[in-house]
Amino acid sequence: MGTFVLALHSHLPYCRGAGRWPHGEEWIHEAVLGTYLPLLVLLQDLREAGVPYRIVIGLTPILIEQLADHDIDVRNLEYIDDQIRRAEKDGGRFVDAGDHARAALADFYLGSYRRLREAYVGRFGRDLVGAFADLARSGHVEVLTSAATHGYLPLLDRASVDAQLRVGRRSTRRLLGLDPTGIWLPECAYAPGLETVLASHGITHFFTDAALLPGHARPAGQIARRRGQSELGRFEPHESRVALATAPLPGDVDLLRPYYVGDSDVVAIARHDRVSGQVWSAFMGYPGDPQYREFHRKDDRSGLRYWRVTSVHKGLGEKEDYSPGRAAERAREHAAHFVSVVRDELSARDVTGRDPLLAVTFDSELFGHWWFEGVDWLGLVLRQLSTSGTTVATASEYLEREPPTERVALTEGSWGKNNDHSTWRNEGTAWMWDELHRLAAEMHDLRSSARGDHPFRERAARHAARELLLAQSSDWPFLVTTGQAADYAVERFRAHAQRFRRASALARSGDAEEDEVELRSLERADNPFPDASLADFAA
Predict the structure, then answer these.
(1) How many domains does the chain have?
(2) Alpha-helical segments (H) within 281-388
(3) Is pLDDT larger for residue 352 or for residue 537?
(4) Last residue of a domain, one of 418, 434, 465
(5) Over the stretch 90-104, which tens digit does the pLDDT of each residue have?
(6) pLDDT at 274 over 70
(7) Which letter, b or e, does each residue of 393-430 get, where b requires 16 or more Cβ atoms within 10 Å of its Cβ?
(8) Who's near 314: CB < 8 A, 6+ residues apart?
(9) Per the count of CB atoms within 10 A, which of 249, 320, 323, 368 is most buried?
(10) 0.85 cut: is pTM over it?
(11) Residue 508 in contact with residue 448, Cβ under 8 Å?
């Protein structure tokens, strides 16, 4: 029946200590309670039940740096306890008002939050990163690394691309005790030449958007090539170790097979857009079902959610009451439907002589957080696929068994609007990229003038490297473009740029006695990647 690979991409912006509601560190706490804890409980339960599932999970370095942070851990527990108190108060309030249906739903939340708290403290020892690593060591999960701060690689200078990859892989090894060879490219952003850089950092495979395959359906609005927009096309070609067939004609490109990219030994796996669309499509995706919980309407007092989608055409004030039982039934139906779609897609193809690969990719935070029933749906899918005749594998398992036989030249682009770079670089964000290029030039000058015989200044230089990585996060221009948190993103970007320049000044002429307090305050404000250094920015 072929092989099925399901990949989840887990990422959140760097928001440690950067305020709470409506933007800031609460993003992490919500994702821990809504997604990461339920997902880990599910995956460990399936393993203990003997379900032979496999799944790929990308964990960005900046995410695991935050999940492993002591202060965030303390505030995670505070947040979970606060949600428990809110559910308790809602239950009493609804009982007093005679609203027994909502009182029962508040009790449902209360029981769920208490169980997740126990899992966080007892089962996982408040170590979610370690829990993911444990699943990887047992072979049930393949962990993907990523660029350190989810930097948008095609628009960065070469030295910064190397730093993002070098620091990112090192962070993954340090925190997970693993050395992944697969990567989730930030925003699925690719430009010709990137494969050679990935190969130089030990990366063997990545997932890509189907629209970047040559000849695949692609919306109007191609890449606008501008001076300085993509640095990656300048890289030297990688000499392949294996002689393979030439790249297929566009009409021969197949979503059900992986390809070596260009002349490299790095493999691209395209997500199957139609099958993935069963979940993420805004028009036909499962999460929009009327019985599922409505994410956008919250109780005025507690912030808990007591309504269902009802209809996408109804306003928030018209939403009807949520029923976990009816929603669970729909999740079972949707899981069965998804498994049948996977089986039908694999069985309908002429795949004589090879094992077809069907890959789907989703953001982890969709499950549980945005789509409340999504974690249960995922568990049902993994259980049913394990007995469906379809092989469920990780990407690395499949590639070891069925290495590619052909090459392809991917189109430059991303998963964003029009599949180009415009979601991240546009009239509203061009100033950010101009500033990043200035910061990169300043980093080059700092590296050229740095001396290794002054411990305080060397420490300041390490912090400058950390701040430049943080400024390069793709989240800041994305939030500006989408308008989700534009002012917040601009403030964060400018703060990291300013801190980079202060740390750079201290690295050039700082004095331990006079400037220790300032440097210590910078280090306390932003503490990920403790081993980042100027040397990481050597191309």
Answers:
(1) 2
(2) 324-347, 374-385
(3) 537
(4) 418
(5) 999 999 999 999 999
(6) yes
(7) bbbbbbbeebebebbbebbbbbbbebbbbbbbbeeebe
(8) none
(9) 368
(10) yes
(11) no
Contact 273, 266 (CB under 8 A): no
**305 plus 445 within the same structural domain:** no
Q: How is residue 235 annotated by DSSP? A: S
Distance CA 117, CA 33 (A): 8
Report d(CA 11, CA 468) in Å as an integer: 19
Q: Tokens 């960065």 correspond to what residue? A: 156
Instruction: Please check whether residues 370 and 459 belong to one and the same domain.
Output: no
Residue 52 has pLDDT above 80, yes or no: yes
Tokens 């009790």 identify what position?
Answer: 107
Domain that holds residue 314: 3-418
Residue 69, CA distances (Å) to 75, 127, 175, 466 in order: 10, 10, 11, 16
User: What are 25's two structure tokens?
Assistant: 């560190």
Same domain for 264 and 161, yes or no, is yes
C-beta atoms surrounding 2 within 10 Å: 19
Degrees to nearest 5, angle at CA 354 with 353 and 357: 160
462 and 399, same structural domain?
Answer: no
**How far apart are the C-alpha atoms of 350 and 338, rounded to whole Å?**
21
Q: Say what percent of the chain tops pLDDT 70.
A: 92
Cβ contact 162:536 at 8 Å: yes
CATH number, domain containing residue 198 = 3.20.110.10
Residue 62, classed as helix, strand or coil, is helix
Same domain, 413 and 432: no
Once rounded to an integer, what is the mean pLDDT over residues 349-365? 84
- What's residue 234's pLDDT? 32
**Of 366, 400, 418, which residue is a domain's last?**
418
Count the residues in the chain: 539
Question: Residue 526's domain is classified under what CATH number?
Answer: 1.20.1430.10
Q: What is the largest CA-CA distance in the chain?
A: 75
